[in-house]
Amino acid sequence: MVKPTRVTNSIRALRFAHGEMTQADLADRVGVTRQTIIAIEQGRYSPSLEMAFQIARVFKVPLDEVFQYPEGDTT
Fold first, then answer.
1. Is a pLDDT exceeding 60 seen at residue 74?
2. Nearest-CA neighbor of 29 among 9, 8, 7, 59?
3. Nearest 5°: phi and psi at 13?
4. Could you give the CA distance from residue 44 to residue 20 in angstroms, rounded to a whole number?
5. Residue of 1, 31, 40, 46 with fewest CB within 10 Å of its CB?
6. What pTM value is reported for the model?
């Protein structure tokens, strides 16, 4: 079984705040599959740093508005 990531994200909320963008629309803009966006949104997959920046750019927000990592967690 795949261990869920500790990285959380606001992708779903950002998609809806940006004209109810679909997962497929975001995937097309980032250059990945819709399944990849679903896995990231659900916390089953952490994107590469490059992909994380691309997602933040789509929404025109800083990276830490899209992705969060729990404070004090060093593992």
1. no
2. 59
3. -60, -40
4. 22
5. 1
6. 0.86
Are the C-beta atoms of residues 28 and 39 closer than 8 Å to each other?
no
Residue 7: other Cβ atoms inside 10 A: 16
Cβ neighbors of 59 (< 8 A, separation 6 or more) are 14, 18, 65, 66
Give the DSSP letter string of 37-64: HHHHHTTS-PPPHHHHHHHHHHHTS-HH
Tens of pLDDT, residue by residue over 45-60, are: 999 999 999 999 999 9
pLDDT digits (tens, 9 = 90+) for 13-53: 999 999 999 999 999 999 999 999 999 999 999 999 999 99
Number of residues that this document lists for the chain: 75
Amino acid, res. 31: G
